Every structure is written in C-alpha cells, then in structure tokens.
Amino acid sequence: MEKMSRVTTAHSSAISGRTMFCHLDAPANAISVCRDATQVVVAGRNIFKVYALEEEQFVEKLNLRVGRKPSLNFSCADVMWHQMEENLLATAATNGAVVTWNLGKPSRNKQDQLFTEHKRTVNKVCFHPTEVYMLLSGSQDGFMKCFDLRKKESVSTFSGQSESVRDVQFSIKDYFTFAATFENGNVQVWDIRRPDRYERMFTAHTGPVFCCDWHPDDRGWLATGGRDKMVKVWDMTTTRAKEIFCVQTIASVARVKWRPEKKFHLATCSMMVDHNIYVWDVRRPFIPFATFEEHKDVTTGIVWRHQHDPHFLLSGSKDSTLYQHMFKDATRPVDKANPEGLCFGLFGDLAFAAKESLISSDANRKPYPGGDRRYPIFFFKKPDPTEQFAHVSSALSVFETDLDSNRMDWFVKTAQLYLLCGKPFAELCDHNAEVARELKRPQVSTTWTMLRIMFSDPANPTTPGLKVGTLPLMNSFNMKDMSSGMGTERGLERCKGESRQDNIHMDLGNLHISNNNEENEETEGSEGQAEYMFGDAELDDDDLYSMEHENQTVEEQECTLPQEAFQLRHEIMDNPSAPEHLQQDKADSPHVSGNEAEVTFLTPIESFSLISISQPLFSPQLPASFFCPIVREMLSYYAEQGDVQMAVSVLIVLGDRIRKEIDDLTQEHWYMSYIDLLQRFELWNVSNEVIKLSTCSAITCLNQASTTLHINCSNCKRPMSNRGWICDRCHQCASVCAVCHHVVKGLFVWCQGCSHGGHLEHIMNWLKSSGHCPAGCGHLCEYT
Q1: CA dihedral in degrees (271, 272, 278, 282; nearest 10)?
Q2: In the predicted model, what is the mean pLDDT of the chain?
Q3: How far apart are CA 781 and CA 167, in angstroms?
Q4: Where found in the cell (predicted)?
Q5: What is the residue extent of each domain of the chain?
Q6: Crossing angle, helix 644-654 and helix 409-417, to 10 degrees?
Q7: Which of 60, 294, 669, 690 is the most buried (most CB within 10 A)?
Q8: Is 189 left (phi over 0), alpha (psi -120 to 50) or beta?
Q9: Of 688, 701, 696, whose CA–CA distance to 420 is shortest?
Q10: Band of the pLDDT at 713, cuts 50, 70, 90?
C-alpha cells in the first residue's frame, strides 16, 4: 500500500470549511487531529478510522481495524496524534494495552509497538509536545507510565497512590512537568525526572476529576473538570495551587479544552445527560459564551482543529457522528437571556434588576458610539462582535425590610423542637402544638390540635361510678331535635323543623318548665310552645364541663348513672314535652308512672342525668378519608403562604393517612423547598432526618449521593478495603490520631492529601498554630 499523501499548510489562515458532519460506523470514544489540521482520527470500541477534512465534507482515508478477528488492541478508550511526527498515533486500549501506530508503514496493519504493562483499562495517552519519542499513559490501576518509543518497555512508573488515573497532560511550557487527575478528587503535578514522588498535590473537586488541560499561552494555568459539574482554573505559579476561576455547568464534565488565541475561553462537554458542547468565558461563568447543539447523544471527544485557529471545533459522539463546527454558527445563549431579574432574600429583602434604559429618567439616552470613554480614544479598537458578549447593562435596586419584623428564629426553633416520629400520633400532635403555642403561633398550634382530634381513635365509653363532673360533655345540644315519643320502644328520631340552640338554665333546687319563649317551635305531641329553664342563671358552655353536684351522697342513694350511652326518660302525657333526652318503656321508668297526668318538676338528680351526656347523638368514629379533603386544602394553604415547614411536618406525621391524597410532584416540591431552607440555616441534622422520613424516591436519594469514601492507610498509603479500619497490607489501624496517637472513637477527620488525621478537636487546635501535618509528613494540610 502506498504511503498516505498529505497536504501540509503553513498557517491556520489557510484553513477553510463549513459546519458539516459524517456518519460513523460505531460510536466514537475519542478523536484527535493531526498537526496540519487536514486529517482527524476517530477511535472507539468498534471503530478506528482516519478521515480527511476537505472543504465540503469528511472523506474516509484509512481504516486501521484490519484482520478477520480484530483483537482488543483495536478497542480504544483514547487516541492521540503526535504533533511533531505526522505519521505517529497512540491509542489506549480497554484491555490495558498502550499501542502505537505508524501510518507510513506499507503493510495493511499499521501497528508499530505494543506495551502491556498496565493491568487494567488505560484511560489516557499523551505525547510530549516537543519530545518525539516520549509517551505518557494513565490507567485505571492507579499508575502512570512513561514510555520511550525506542525501547520496548516503560522507562518510568509513577504511582498516584489512588484507585484510578483519569487524565494525564504534559505541560506545554514546562518540559519536565505533567499533571494527572484522579477519581478521589485530587490533582497531582509530577516531574518526569522524579518518579518516586509528586511535586504537588491538591484536592480540586468533590468527586472524580475526569479531565485537565494546560493553558497554551499561560504556563501557570491548569483547567480541571469533574463529576461535581464544575470547571476550575488553577494558578500553579504560586506556592499553593490557587483557584482563580470557577464555572458551574449543568452536568459532570468529561472533556475540557482551551480555545486557541483566546486567553479566557475554553470548551467543555459532558459525560452524561447533556449532549451539547459549551464554550465558556471564565470571566463570566454563569452563562455559556457559545453553544453547539448538533449532537443527539453524549459528546465523547472535542478538539480544536488547529492550535492557532479558534474558529473550527471537531467533535465525536456516541450518536455515531463526527462534526466540524464553525464558531460563527454557534448558538449564543446570552442573546436569549433576560436582563430583568427579581429575587427575594432570606430575610425578606427584595432585589430587582432591569435594563437601565427602562428605569432611567432619560429614556432617550443612548450609549456613546465611540466606545468606553475611560480609555484614550486613540487606543480604542473596535472589537469583533462575534467574539464579544452582548452588552446589556442592568440597574439593581434592593428594597430592604426591617430585620426585627422578619426574623426567622421561629423557623429554626420549630425545626429543632418538632417531633416527626418515634411516638404515638396523638403525642406527636400534642407536642408540636405545644411547641407552636410557646413560639406564639396560635393558628399552627390549633391546627395540630385539630389534626389530633380528626385522626386519633375515639375515647373509650364511660363506665359507671365516675363523677359527673369528670365526664366529657357536649358543648351544646338541641332540645327540639329530640323525639317526644316518651313511652314507645322505637329509637330516637329527629324532630321536624329548623334546628336552634336553646338556652339552658340551672337551679340546684329544682327544675322548672315555662312557656315564655314565643319563638320556640312546638315539639311533637305538645299543645304549646315550651322553653326549658334551669333556675335563674344561664350557664356557659365551659361550665358544663366543670359542674359537680353538691349533694353527691343523695344522688348516689337515689340514682346511679345508667349503663346506656343516654339516660332513660319519662313519659309525659297531655303536656308540653320535656327535652327528648332519652327513651324508655313506661314500665321501666324509675320516677314516673304511666298514669300521671302532669309533670312540672324534676328532681335535682334528674337534672344531672339530663345534661351528663357522655356520647354525641351520632357515632364519633368517622373514617380518616372524611377529613382528607380538608387537610389537603390546609396543607396547600400553608405551602402557598410560604410555610412549607408546616406542610412537610404534617405530611410526615400523618403518613399514609394523607400521603395518597397529594400527588408526588407536589410532595417533592414541598420537600425540596423545606430541605433547601434547612440547609440555608445549616440545620444539617434536621435536613437529614426529613430526607430519611420522606417516601419520595427523588428525596430519599439526596443523602445517598457522593457518599463513597476512598480511604488510604495513613501508614503505607495504600487504598483500604471496605471490610474494616485495619489495613490489609501493613496491619495497622487507620484511625489513629496524629496528635495524641490514640485510636479515634467517634468523629474522625483526615486530610485527603496525605491521609493523616485524628480527633476533630485535636486537628482543629493543631492547624490553628501550624499549617503542616501533625504526623510530620511535611504535607500542608488545610481544615475548612
């Protein structure tokens, strides 16, 4: 086969083209472009091809997967095209092999050298930018290896003392320096002349660091991206790595590449969820500078076409497409951004931002056309509008409220004092009602009390022998709602006519029935109107509960309270009927015979039997579903008023009684709002309890994410297994305090950099006076 013909361009100005794409045979894992930007190599599990970049399209030039049964050496996790030797490629295989390829070979198989020193998948390969024969690899086994392509084995091995190396990158400006990122969140900087120990290590992200990239112009800037959805730029020229920029994205960052000729621009793509490619200006990290939205699946590889051309970006994806993006065709999110904003502060302050032109007193005011007058006019250079953010100036107004009138102390105390589980339902309601009452929130307190009444089991029926004054009584009862059939055996029936509350008067000496209320309707079987007076004084409802007869001994001698729920009554004939309190046959009446024509007085004992009602006239045991609509409306009311604390607390305490009445999306919204408030007030324990008690799957997983701890032994630096705190390798206890040298029982804090730690209080006191590790390893520990 002939040697591949190549077209070399002297400068990026000769590069031209358009936004275009081609379909691949399989999903791509990585792409790399040659030095003169005329060809691109695409590698994946089932694809390994070279494409030519022509004016209007991609043209396949070479398929490197040859043979009837391609080996796993062709299954690539990463690919790198040498930037000095135009025919040299390197790939990282999923079987742990590092393979180099020589495109100048006349045979069909272009494989050059094979290195199989790694034990697990190789995640990254990187050529030295100026040294032709130097190749660096990083593997899942935690080791980095440096290969001299003139030899058949590695010349140096670097141990990151971590589980996995995710990325390695040679510094463009420093000949001997390379950076490596790890799954434990650390970034290490190494000198290739010292494979025994890294020069610098710092924790860059919470969670794995998937990628890094050295700035092509500024030797001190290193960009890193991780699973915490952040891109951070570090200044490596200082004694300690200093974070100078931070960009918050919407998904974990899989790739990061600085944009050529643009000092503050970098491109990123995500590992999952988000399919777009973003170009960020790190000085304005809250909105992307440009977006490429062509891919339909996760973008796996991005590379700028030429190291001096910022206008062309190449990308490969799991949707089996290869794209060339022109920067002028990118979407600009800032053009769709709303320059107006409204936000409430934690204590009720209101911030409002709007265009200056909308709120300025001079509505016709126009900006100066010559640019910013703060600089001399002869220094002003008209910027390229395609490389600038939209210039929208907004004015911010803040309306403050009185702090004392909007204090949130009640919220914190309520969250700390409320009981949501661990006791019977009635006790939880009573406790929470008491908490609300003490915090001067009567409406909330009453709500808890009503919930207890609605959903608690009814009280047991009263038993004989109890004092009358201790019985639970009805607040009021309607005399004309009782039947006048005094001697029949049928049950109680309601009277005809409208219900009305009657006045009840009591005289302890006797009970008199008079006919001086003309508005009272006639009861069934009576010839006139009747009003029932108990003495001269009218009793309040509350007095009915506290009343106890003075002549208790007489009552016990003449009458005892019946077993029945209602006191039995007499028969009154040819007279206005007394209150239809209870019914009984004539023969069973203990006081009145069936032949009596008139009854005008009742004994004091009977007066007590009239009002001592221990059960209402209907069954008090209503199903819980009867109250659910009311409770649902109540919870919505509290949530709409902003008191999601009450809504969530009631939701947890009631549990299955009300949960099915409210849709899952609404519950999740309430939970998220309450948890956010708790975390703002740093009520971490209460927040965690709410998460644990939630039944929403989206909530219960909140305290289960990012909780995996990768622990190294503080003695031998090796990763520890999950079986205990004793290292399998050196058989030393890992939880020994570096200050007092005793085993830590309880809270243990350790440095992610050097693995040393100890008692929380001891480490805090030590780091107040010294920045070095108390174990004497020399590491600069930091407690935050």
Answers
A1: -60
A2: 76
A3: 24
A4: Lysosome membrane
A5: 30-273+301-309, 338-381+389-399, 408-456+624-707, 708-783
A6: 10
A7: 690
A8: beta
A9: 688
A10: confident
What's the N-to-C CA distance of the chain in angstroms? 62
How far is CA 683 from each of CA 349, 514, 648, 679, rounded to the nearest angstrom?
22, 66, 15, 6
Q: DSSP letter at 650?
A: H
pLDDT tens per residue, range 471-511: 343 343 343 343 333 333 333 343 333 333 443 343 433 43
Which SS3 state, helix, strand or coil, does residue 362 take?
Answer: coil
3-state secondary structure of 318: coil
Burial state string for 317-345 with b = 16 or more CB within 10 A and e = fewer than 16: bbbbbbbbbebeebeeebeeeeeeeeeee
Q: Which of 296, 304, 245 is nearest to 279 (CA)?
A: 304
Helix (H) or strand (E) holding 443: helix 442-455
State the pTM of this model. Answer: 0.53
Q: What is the pLDDT of residue 389?
A: 67
Specify whether the CB–CB gap between 87 and 102 falls below 8 A. Answer: yes
Q: Which residue has the tokens 């001269």?
A: 536
Task: Give me the amino acid identity at 670.
Answer: W
Q: What is the pLDDT of residues 63-90, one digit of tens each?
A: 988 877 778 888 899 999 998 888 999 9
Mean pLDDT of 566-591: 46
CB atoms within 10 A of CB 176: 13
Q: For the residues 50-69, what does the mean pLDDT come to?
A: 87
Check residue 700 and report its DSSP letter.
Answer: H
Position 534, amino acid: F
Q: Are 84 and 72 in contact (CB under 8 A)?
A: no
- Residue 118, pLDDT above cutoff 50: yes
CA distances from 677 to 149, 177, 543, 648 (A): 58, 46, 46, 12
Nearest-angstrom CA–CA distance, 455 and 626:
10
Q: Are the C-beta atoms of residues 227 and 252 closer than 8 Å to each other?
A: yes
- Helices 644-654 and 684-693 meet at what angle, rounded to 10? 40
Predicted pLDDT of residue 40: 95
* pLDDT, tens digit (0-9, with 9 covering 90-100), for 243-276: 999 999 999 999 999 999 999 999 999 988 889 9
Structure confidence by residue, pLDDT tens digits, 413-448: 999 999 999 999 999 999 999 999 999 999 999 999
Instruction: Say yes or no to pLDDT of 100 above 90.
Output: yes
Distance CA 27, CA 37 (A): 22
CA atoms within 13 A on the CB side of 573: 9
**Single-letter residue type at 737:** C
The hierarchical CATH code for the domain 30-273+301-309 is 2.130.10.10
Question: Under a CB-based contact definition with an 8 Å cutoff, are residues 218 and 245 in contact?
Answer: no
| pLDDT of res. 523 | 35
Secondary structure (DSSP) of 549-618: -S-HHHHHHH----SSSS-------SSPPPP------GGG-SS--TT-----EE-HHHHHHHH---S-SS
Q: What is the pLDDT of residues 305-334, one digit of tens each?
A: 988 889 999 999 999 999 999 999 999 988
Gyration radius of the chain's alpha carbons:
42
Residues in the chain: 784
DSSP conformation class of 522: P
C-alpha 315/C-alpha 304 separation (Å) is 9
